[in-house]
Amino acid sequence: MTDRWIVELLLAVVVVTAVGVVRARNLLVASVLLGIYSLVMALIWTAMEAYDVALTEAAVGAGISTLLLIGALIRTGSRIGGSKERDAPRIDKVALAVAVLTGAALAYGTLDMPAIGDPTAPVHVHPKVARHYIDRSMEETHVPNMVTVVLASYRGYDTMFETCVVFTAALGVMVLLRRRRPPAEPAPGEMREQAIFVVMTRMTVPFVLAYGSYVITHGELGPGGGFQGGVILAAGYLIYALVYGLAAAQRALPPRLTDVGAGLGVLIYAGVGVACLLLGGDFLAYDALNQADPAKGQQLGMTLVELGVGLTVACVMVTIFNEVAQP
Amino acid sequence: MTLTPQVPALVVLVPLLAGVVIGLVRHAGLAWLLASLASVTTFALTLALAARVQAEGVVIYAMGGWAAPTGIELRVDALNALVLALVAGMAAVIVPTSRASVAREVPADRHDQFYALVLLCVAGMLGVTATGDAFNLYVLIEISSLTAYALVALGRSRDRRALTASFQYLIMGSIGASFLLVGLGYLFLATGTLNMADMAVRLADLHGSTTVRTGVAFVIVGLSLKMALFPVHQWMADAYTYAPTSVTALMASTATKVGVYITIRFVYTIFGHELSFVIMPTDAFLLAFACLAIVVGSLQAIRQHDVRRLLAYSSVAQIGYLVLGLALGSALGLSGTLVHLLNHALVKGALFLAVGAVVYRQGGATMHELTGIARRMPLTAAAIAVGGLGLIGVPLTGGFVSKWYLVAGALEAGLWPVAVVVLVGSLLAVAYVLRLLQVVYFGEPGTVAPEPAGEAPASFWAPALLLLLGSVALGVSGQLTGGLIAAAAGALAGGAP
Amino acid sequence: MSLLATGLFNLLNYWVYVSLMMIGLYAVIAKTNLVKKVIGLSLFQTGIFIFYISMGVVSGATTPITWTDAERLRLGLSRVEVAPERAAAALAAVEEDGLDAARAALGPLAPADAARLDELLARPYTNPLPHVLILTAIVVSVSTMAVALAIVMEIKAAYGTIESDEIVTAELETARAARS
Fold first, then answer.
1. Which of B27, B66, B114 to mutate to test the interface with A (most CBs of A within 10 A)?
2. Which position among A211, A322, B196, B472 has the lowest Cβ density within 10 Å, counted as fewest Cβ atoms?
3. What would the pLDDT profile of A137-182 be if each residue is shown by its tens digit?
4. pTM metric for this prediction
């Protein structure tokens, strides 16, 4: 772990930002502050050696969430100074009591917790859980990134449902927001007129897409994987849509395709599981994919399910953005 | 290769995959057909699983081939075999018969997404019930909740209040899930494991830890929010009132039952009798709020004008009974909870289907719209009558059996005030059911609302009557499920995991 | 430092997480603006993430990506003063016979350097499990936010406002109009 005081400083920044988010009257300010809050949080994860989490927090928390919030503010017309928060000096006593009571209970529970970083804490020494993941994952799967092994193999069943949660979010947003008729062709985005943005986009988007694909496919070796890479891929689309306008973006990547892709990713994930089952293993037991060399089977299985995850996440993020951003 | 050993995995996989595929089909009729096929198949699979549990005992399935606690396992014993069959059974009755009401209440171009959400919700609930891993439970709860929020919001084409109900549900549901996540985090920190059985073993030596005690408290409070236990029940009353009819029927008969199941699992299997009842005052906490839920829920039900709202408040009271039984900490109390779980699922599902028939014909379900419908809609009225009697718990219905157990359990524990609350609750149920039946059978039609044109399609009343038949069977022959229930209750209360 | 102060310091991350949860919970309950409630929920959930990740920290540990012995040695050698030919010998030895042989091939080092090298060679890994759990929780949290915002947009379309008190007023007026 990086020097203790850096983490402490960042934690202090996080708390101050959180207070700022809650106190901000202007919702746009609150949303942007929340993005900064997530970004600082990502730094904290880095300082705590949780790079996979940091990457996800930066892409999801600071990126997608902020965009969604701002999109929602534009759609509900509560953009700049539009918030009618009239609760300036008033403190809600009930809310305060609930929060303080919850906080007191949570703090009471921390009193006999082992010190942070204590290597003898129960979470670190369980022979069949943490120790197994750390000591045996390389031997069992030949994949160096333990986070990916736990995510995609030891707890791969969880991750399948996590992908499903993402898919469900897209379904939920579509069922509520999708318009019956395709939207009339809107005027091209204002930014399109500005040559510098157009040129920059043309230069950036291919790199963003390449980076997203890299992150999806290299989760076994370093930080990254389907979730992070999928979000980065979607970010490529988002940049394009912001500069060229939504209609142009939807011509480049028709919503029908992303609808199918969102479901297809989950099907790939579950399909790998079913393939294991048909080859005589248990559901998602990738060993069955390569009877001669189970570790190779594990690698293949993980690569495939990460592809499924990446496909679903990228398509879902694009879908949600499309629905929120439509005029 | 044979699929028999794979049945536990298939129980969750079939609705899950069907849900995803339905999300892609873009055809209302096909979506319904696939959803019906999948829910019936799933029910058959849960029955096969229950038979296997009865023959072999606990069935364990290691996901990914990794034995627990390294990997995630499904662990099915008599208790969750029963709940799995209940959830899948209700889905198998409600989904195939939902076509007419869905066509009326949900825009046609959204039927595919609607049925996809329904099946994913069912898959989530089945997964929650089958899993033996505490964190997996959290993920699956989030699937069933997220789908439920969207489904409730779909009621907006009938009434815009569905949207605010759904938002409130989302906020309360997310707070509840977060409390659960924190509580699980504390327990994980203390034990180093997420597997339920392993956690139970390790917790046995950690009763003195404040971390463990706080974790227990947060799990219980989080689950109470998810179950809509009084005083955090308002979201449920609103959600049931404004959701599309078939969604309400499905949720009322399954979602709260799964919540009660999880609570039983935590209190008895994971925490164990001593931690739950001796070291932590879980029983006192749950008993107090259960009694309040019974009384306040029933009183609120009496005051309602909209029958869906009346039934929703009645559900608030019924959750009180369910929690009361499990908080008694005895085999008798647990038997009461389990019988009530089955019976109330059948009865409430049937009642909401019958009310759905009235909504279909009359456009609403206030007391006005129900006035005198017995003349033109005799079968729907009969379903409401039998269901109402089941809610009261008159002899020959399953409700009688469960309340008998609950009263006996309370007296056995020397808690006669609790027994009195059960009886008072039943009297209050008499009040709201009789008021309803009086309107349905003896109201003068045509004076306040037009008389219905005729009986609703059979897809409304036939499943309702089928479910009620089940409830009566449960009441007439305690033996029907008695063996399985007594086995489950005895095993849990005896402390054996 | 007194024992109490040490204890507080050791658990500092946990106190921060408790404060974030309190701030978030307060906002969810107290704020009338629905978007603000969603933001509060997000703060509330991220507080929990700090708790889980802090739990996974191991003092002096590195990120949970398996390093081979050679990789560890290469990093270690880059941080200490050592003659290039001895470093090359050590790197050759590690491929053949493992870390102990490499350490022997390296010969004696300055005491500070030796301690530093040994620490780097024996560096443990952070616990990967909390990271995995929180990856899941982050994804769940953004999915919930997306659905919540979709509902808020529909509420705006149906009621013309996203302030909960104005929605209540609108409903009361509708009910009054229906009665009269």
1. B66
2. A211
3. 888 988 899 999 999 999 999 999 999 999 999 999 999 988 755 5
4. 0.94
